[in-house]
Amino acid sequence: MHELAIAQSVVEAVCERAGDRRVHSVRVAVGELCAVVPDSMQFCFELVTAGTVAEGARLDIEIPAGCGRCRSCGAEFRLSDPILLCACGSADVEVRSGRELRIVSMEVS
Fold first, then answer.
1. In which residues is Zn(2+) bound (predicted)?
2. Which residues are paired to 23 by β-bridges?
3. Are 61 and 45 in contact (CB under 8 A)?
4. Contact call for residues 41 and 3 (beta carbons, < 8 A)
């Protein structure tokens, strides 16, 4: 379950940045191609925030869609899984979005 490792990394970064301030919410962007299960990440986030300044914080997960561009024919298309194959048959595909994994914002007091 890589969601646990991701949640731990997010909480460590948020707590480091927050210092002694209470964290109320965290917004993350986790691309569709990262194969993260939002419910699992939510569960893991609640586990790893226990005893930290982020305990009880809300986790908001944005899931940017996977998009790619074929270098052979120039077509742009949606990628719903990590198999990078254009309708023209080419596997020479540039991933434009969907692999994001970042903390977008956090609310503290």
1. 70, 73, 86, 88
2. 108
3. no
4. yes
Q: Which CATH class is domain 2-65+98-108?
A: alpha beta
pLDDT of residue 1: 59
Q: Report the chain (109 residues): mean pLDDT per 10 consecutive residues.
A: 91 97 98 92 97 98 96 94 89 94 97
Is 73 assigned to a binding site?
Answer: yes
* Residue 70 counted as an annotated binding residue: yes
- 86 labeled binding residue: yes
What pLDDT is recorded for position 63? 95
Output the six-digit token pair for 100.
Answer: 């994001």
Q: Is 88 annotated as a binding residue?
A: yes
- Residue 24 labelled as part of a binding site: no
The Cα-based distances of 89 to 11, 60, 83 in angstroms read 42, 37, 12
